[in-house]
């Protein structure tokens, strides 16, 4: 079954979704939304204050190592 663009199956209280399809669509929607709000200083400031997710420990250490 499909609602909008999310493929899912429901069996009683259990909901099963196609995670790859769901995540791809969420990422695309967020990227479009970020382009749409690029001139909204309030929203951009809130986004800048959010957590940063690092892909590896090395990138995390590099971002927080002083360069003096």
Any overview of this molecule?
This protein has 3 helices and 3 strands, in the order βββααα. With 68 residues, the protein is an alpha+beta fold. It has one domain. A 3-stranded antiparallel sheet has the order 1-2-3. The longest helix has 18 residues, at 19-36. The chain is flat and about 60 Å long. The relative contact order is 0.08.
Which features characterize this protein?
68 residues; alpha+beta; single chain; three-stranded antiparallel sheet
Q: What's a concise summary of this model?
A:
By secondary structure, this protein is an alpha+beta fold. 49% of the residues lie in helices and 18% in strands. The protein has 3 helices and 3 strands.
Helix content estimate: 40-55%
State which percent range the strand residues make up. 15-25%
Number of discrete domains: 1
Shape: flat
Give the beta-strand count: 3
Order of helices and strands: EEEHHH
Low-confidence runs of at least 5 consecutive residues: none
Mean pLDDT: 83
Contiguous helical run count: 3
Largest sheet: 3 strands, antiparallel
Termini separation comes to 57 Å
């Amino acid at each position: 079954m499909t609602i909008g663009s999310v493929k899912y199956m429901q069996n009683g209280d259990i909901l099963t979704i196609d995670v790859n399809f769901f995540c791809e669509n969420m990422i695309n929607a967020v990227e479009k939304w970020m382009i749409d709000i690029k001139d909204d200083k309030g929203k951009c400031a809130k986004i800048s204050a959010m957590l940063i997710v690092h892909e590896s420990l090395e990138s995390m250490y590099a971002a927080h190592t002083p360069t003096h």
